[in-house]
């Protein structure tokens, strides 16, 4: 089973694309488990109520919340470290994060304009 780290903007893009999360992820990865670090959960909790309510309910149902890395304060730094250490792709649409992941040997999943997921390894 593959872990998939969730970035807040990637999660919102996935929700807004109205994709069936299970089918879309299984189509590119096979069996998977969503992993959410505490700081990403906090970012989603700060979203406007309309986006936040459905997003958090679904994420808490489908994902495992994992603690932030001690002595690290930047969410993207934590995502990159966890991604590369565990070979887990990050679900994101953040251009800078995708570039940093690529440079560090990590991978990511993006929601593209055709409302499909694409794994960049």
Structure explained in plain terms:
With about 120 residues, this protein is an alpha/beta fold. The chain has one domain: 3-Layer(aba) Sandwich (Rossmann fold), CATH 3.40.50. The protein is built from six helices and six strands. It has helices spanning about 10-15, 20-30, 40-45, 50-60, 75-85, 95-105, and strands at about 1-5, 30-35, 65, 90, 110, 115-120. A hairpin with a 5-residue loop joins strand 5 and strand 6. Helix 5 (about 75-85) packs parallel to helix 6. It is globular, with a radius of gyration of 13 Å. The model has no long low-confidence stretch (mean pLDDT about 90).
What labels describe this entry?
Rossmann fold, 6 helices, alpha/beta, globular, 6 strands
